[in-house]
Design brief:
9-stranded mixed β-sheet, 7 helices
């Protein structure tokens, strides 16, 4: 089973969270490729994502919650997926719940229009998700990723990250 099929089997707005290096970005890139044409909206200056090349996966670099919001308002037509990686990095710095609520409301609206939305969430040093209440309120499904398994909602998917792609569910 493809990872995109596993993740989106119970909804159109899905969140994954985990520690740094747990595979969130690799999964987001794999799902973006599987559900292309798609857009991957990511932090400015992230070389791993910037070097990711695909003719059917668009890439937008952002440096604030407002820029994520702007990128979502100027989407190319015909997209099947919007992936934001990570959605909460700027929220942790900006601490503007109202702006983040607006962004999450927009993403929910987009997901209800037929475009799938995948959000990755960083965790803090004490294993908490910054913006967890938003994640739980707006997500149809939530998965924790630990480097080899996606776990959530009484389901598991083992995966393997290779140089070129993520293979799963094994």
């Amino acid at each position: 089973m493809r990872i995109s099929e596993f993740l989106f089997s119970h909804g159109s707005l899905v969140s994954i969270y985990g520690a740094a290096g747990s595979g969130k970005t690799s999964i987001a890139m794999q799902v973006s490729n599987e559900l292309s044409p798609s857009i991957l909206i990511a932090d400015e200056g992230d070389f791993e994502k910037r070097s990711y090349k695909s003719s059917r996966v668009y890439f937008a670099e952002v440096s604030s919650t407002f820029e994520i919001f702007k990128a979502c308002l100027s989407l190319p037509s015909g997209l099947r997926l919007i992936s934001v990686d990570p959605v909460n990095s700027h929220y942790r710095m900006e601490r503007s719940p109202l702006d983040f609520l607006k962004l999450m409301t927009l993403l929910r609206s987009i997901s209800q229009s037929g475009i799938k939305v995948l959000l990755t969430w960083n965790i803090t040093w004490n294993d908490k998700v910054s913006g967890e209440k938003f994640m739980r309120r707006f997500s149809d499904d939530i998965f924790m990723v630990n480097g080899k398994t996606l776990i959530g909602n009484l389901r598991e998917c083992d995966f393997k990250i290779t140089k070129d792609k993520v293979i799963g569910c094994l």
